[in-house]
Amino acid sequence: MIQQVAPAISRLKESLKATLADFRSLSTSSDVPSFPTTIDRDKYFDTFKTSTETNDTKSCLECASRELLYDIVTDFDLESSLEPFRTLYQFFDLILILSELEISDPQLPFALIEETLDTQPIDNCKRIFSYLEARIERLTVGVDGTKGKGIILLRLCNELLRRLSKSEDTVFCGRIFVFLTKSFPLSERSGVNLRGEFHVENKTTFDERWCQLAENQPDRMSPMIGENDPSEAALAADACNRLYTVLWSTQHEFAEPVRLFQKPVLDNFKESLDTVIKAFRSSIDEHGHNAPPVTSDSRRGLKRKWDGEMKHDELDSYNPKYLTSRELFDLEVRDLVFRRHILVQFLIVIEFLLSLSPKYKKYLEAEAKNRSVQFAYTLSEDDDRWAETAKKDVVNALNYKSGMDGLLFSRTVDSVLTREKNWVKWKAENCVSFEMDPASTEHVAVSKLAGREATTLINNLGKVVGAPALTRVWFDDSLDVTAIRSNTENSRINLPTYRSYNKPIEGYHLDKDFAFTEQEKEDIDESISNVTWRSLRIASRDRFQLFKNLDDDLSVKSLIAIEDGIAPAGKETEKDGKKDTQTNTEPDGVKPMQ
To answer: In what ranges is there compositional bias, type Basic and acidic residues (predicted)?
Structure first.
């Protein structure tokens, strides 16, 4: 058996080399050559079916492919130029075509790519990963995260992520996550934290001696601190030392929020939040909100030189793992990015606490099926109110003296947290698929027919006019229909005069005098205003010149008095060369109408 397999592997390896040489003639100058779609597959790949006399052709082809891959990787210096990478990409294309023709196993391309990534440094892995991004449509055909090539794809991406630094290789990590997002559907459960586990391994260590010094021996904080007359600088140093311990100690709750289920821990967390917000506001007041971010290697903890081509914007958006040294803490607090980093962490934890409120848990339990992401702990009413208030305080701290940039940042954070809440709800509902089954042919036909019927014009109704009820009224001799028959009746087409509204207004005034409650008086005043407005509107059509004689008393009675030549109440008129004041008299017990 071995005597048959070894020659078969050798022949397959030579066939792979010959085919790969033909691929090079079709190569382009781009970093990732285009997929060879113009080749004659029957001419090239019939040889792979006849190159072995054994029945296990796929196993032999896998061994031959691995040997050729090792030769390519060892013979070329992958750090010298792009040409070795093009050869490697063409080799992967060759294996991909063999898998599409079902000559090799479907998972063989991913297995070879995984082995290549395991043997290369990070810089070369970035270039090799470009091949995966360029061939994503062909590589991910029929991929399933629970079997076959889907498992290998998840494994190689996860292993690559473990090798990367979250602070130094942020962009490459993002490329991998985007690739996984495009490769698997949104409802794929293999990439979901179904059990709701926290990253408790992410521990933050800091020097806790400063806390002990701040609490027990404040006179050691600074040589300027006196026993009875501490200086301002000494007090500031004492406050900063306490803030240092308070801020970094909250990282334990950030990494494991379930610690907050213990009341002492939650109470301490509340005090820490208040302390941090006050300290950040004080720093903004003292040093300004837009203080330039500290982007030096000392704050980043990077003992390396930055790439000369890295732009300033990339430095500002850099996602660091902050150092916890006390000597750097003063500079970190002044940094805008650092303050936002801490406040957003507080917001995330507060949102987690709000998800444990009775109201939200009742809303979630209606459709929740995944009990592993639901917690038995329920937030009390007092803690629920505190969480709502604390959320507003943190948002206000983000916006404090920040202008439009701060508002935009807080809105972005709010949008991200809202989407995250929706993802948590979806996960609690056991990751229901987003995909909908396509409509059946019968359903499409019925919908088309219903649409046609709904948009068809109604046939002409002919001479059908009116309604049966109107017809009966028209021919009923016992009813007076003269007003209906005659459309020239003056009472129907003429507007009433503005004087006709005066009598109803006087009646309203009398009703107001006998009203008992304030509500009745307000209703009567509203009716008087409505009727007065109608009367004055009619009067403005042909008596607009009278309005210039009205002062503040816009009433129908005043307008009538002006038109009749009678001075309104309180107006002075000239009689016999001297001034006289006319007042309108009213019946006993009735006040003048306004």
So the answer is: 571-581
Sorted by sequence, the CB contacts under 8 Å of residue 107 that are 6+ apart come out as 148, 149, 152
Helix axes 336-354, 263-287, angle to 10 degrees: 150
Whether 522 is covered by a domain: the verdict is no
Burial of 65 (0-12, 13-18, 19+ CB in 10 A): buried
Calpha distance 474→401 (Å, rounded) = 76
pLDDT digits (tens, 9 = 90+) for 330-366: 888 888 888 888 999 999 999 999 988 888 888 877 7
Q: Tell which residue, 384, 133, 118, has the closest CA to residue 266.
A: 384
Can you say how many angstroms the Cα of residue 532 is from the centroid of all Cα atoms in its chain? 54
pLDDT in tens, 155-173: 899 899 989 887 788 899 9
Which helix (H) or strand (E) segment holds residue 411: the answer is: helix 403-428
pTM, two decimal places: 0.55
Q: Please, what is the end-to-end C-alpha distance for the chain in angstroms?
A: 120
What are the CA-CA distances from residue 77 to residues 29, 130, 489 (Å)? 19, 18, 106
The closest alpha carbon to 269, from 284, 281, 251, belongs to: 251
Please give the Cα distance from 303 to 465 (Å, whole number): 93
Q: Which two tokens stand for residue 49?
A: 């079916």
Does 335 share its domain with 296?
yes
Instruction: Please state the φ and ψ torsions of residue 574, each to the nearest 5 degrees.
Output: -90, 120
140 and 7 within one domain:
yes
Residue 346 · residue 394 · CB < 8 Å: yes
Per the structure, the count of domains in the chain is 2
Supply the mean pLDDT for the chain. 75
220 and 155 within one domain:
no
With contact defined as beta carbons under 8 Å apart, do 319 and 167 qualify?
yes
- Report the helix count and the strand count for the chain, using DSSP H and E: 27, 2
The predicted structure's pLDDT at residue 218: 46
Please provide residue 401's backbone torsions phi and psi, each rounded to the nearest 5 degrees: 50, 40
Q: Please check whether residues 228 and 112 belong to one and the same domain.
A: no
Residue 82 and residue 32: Cα distance in Å, rounded? Answer: 9
Cβ count within 10 A of residue 421: 15
Same domain? For 257 and 166 the reply is no
SS3 state of residue 425: helix
Determine, yes or no, domain membership for 514. no
| Domain's final residue, options 428, 447, 471 | 428
Contact between residue 205 and residue 171 where contact means Cβ atoms under 8 Å apart? no
∠ Cα 89 95 99 (to 5°): 140
- Same domain? For 126 and 238 the reply is no
Residue 375 domain-assigned? yes
492 pLDDT higher than 80: no
**In this structure, what token pair is assigned to residue 155?**
């494994």
Domain that holds residue 29: 2-191
CA dihedral angle for residue 60, residue 62, residue 68, residue 74, rounded to 10 degrees = -130
- Token duo for residue 350: 């507060």
Residue 144: DSSP 8-state: B
Angstrom distances, CA of residue 465 to CA of 460, 469, 471, 475: 12, 12, 10, 15
Domain identity same for 231 and 132: no
Give the residue, 453 or 296, on which the prediction is more confident. Answer: 453
Tens digits of residue pLDDT in 533-545: 888 888 888 888 8
